[in-house]
Hints:
There is one protein chain. The chain is α/β, with parallel strands linked by helices. It has one domain: Rossmann fold, CATH 3.40.50.720. The chain is 39% helix and 16% strand. The protein has 5 helices and 7 strands. The chain has helices at 45-48, 62-73, 89-103, 126-153, 175-190, and strands spanning 4-8, 12-13, 16-17, 53-59, 77-83, 108-111, 159-162. The chain has a 5-stranded parallel sheet with strand order 5-4-1-6-7, with helices on both faces. The chain has a two-stranded antiparallel ribbon with strand order 2-3. The radius of gyration is 16 Å and the shape is globular.
Amino acid sequence: MKRIVILIDGTWNKEGITSNTNVAALDPGNPIVADAFIKTTGGDRHRAVTGRREVMLCDIEDAALVKAVADLKLTNADVDGVRADVSLKAELQAAADATIARHGKVHILVNNAGVGGGGSYGRWSDASWNWTLGVNLMSVVWGVEIFGPLIEAHGEGGQIVSTASIAGLIAGAGPAYNVTKYGVVALSEGLR
């Protein structure tokens, strides 16, 4: 059975995953996940993937995406990438279409994009709130909406992982960021 992982807006660096891509490791006991997920919790990225994996990466930054694909290929993964601004539903749909065209199906989606923004009280703008809401929250909503049916369609099971942060549980200094992360937690808990 093929296993596909899509990391939304994830880019590698020498230390592993960059600060905007702190993917949580999935339960290795889960039969869908056991030999499919990439452990990206700060360990050696070359040990991260053992065996054959099929991975589609998605990022808004072309250079970061190209580097991430090249670095991940060193781990024996069958990896490709697609450029997309996940704050735009049509671009996320195009990423899904590219994944299906390349791999035929999806088993695991990792909603992991994240940006700071929105500004502090008194300095808000519509543009900064829209950007933060689009990347941090709406990309998760659309990820579930677009990829959920693709995962269900093949009947082999799968998983959707949506990364929030501690800001999804404890409000910090950035109101827009907090709102989006609380939203991700609420959506994820509501889908259990």
